[in-house]
Amino acid sequence: MNNSPKIVLLFLFMLISGTLTAQKFGYIDSEYILNKHPDYKIVQQELENLSDAWKKEAQSLDKEIKDMYTQLKAEEVLLTEEMYQSRLQDINKKEQASREFNSRIFGIEGQYFQKQAELLQPLQSKIYDAIERVSRKNNLAMLFDKASVPSGIIYTDPRHDYSEFVLDELGIEDNN
Question: Which residues form the signal peptide (predicted)?
Fold first, then answer.
C-alpha cells in the first residue's frame, strides 16, 4: 500500500508532462511545390502533347462527320429514300464512334487521366517522401495541404508554411 501514492504521483506526472509537450502543426502548398519542380513541367508538356494529338484525332472525326452531312445535303435530291436512310445511318455510326472515342480518351476513367496518373505518380511519391522527412525533422504532429480542395483552411500564418523546407529537401532552389 505504501507504493500506491508513488505510482499515482508518477502517473500524474507522466500525464501532466504529456499534455505540456505541445504538438506542432504546419502546412504546405502542394500546388506551389509541384509548379516549382522541374519534372512537373516535363510531365505537363508530355501530357499536353498527348492531349493535342488526341484532340486533333477527335477534330478529324468531327470534320469527317460534318463533311458527310454536307455531302448528304448536296446529294439529297438525287438519292432514293433508301439510299438517304443508309447514308444517315452511316453518319450516325460515325457520330457514335466519335462519342466513344472522346469517352475512351477524355472520359472520367479515360486514357488521358490514366496517363496523367501514371506520369505524376513517381513525382508525387518523391514529394510525399520529402514531406515526410520535413515533418519528422521538424517534429510536426500534422501537416496540412493548403492546396487541397476541401481543406477548410481559412487563414494561415506564413511562419507555419513548410513548403520551402520541402523544396529544399527535394533540392529545388526558389527562383522567384
Answer: 1-22
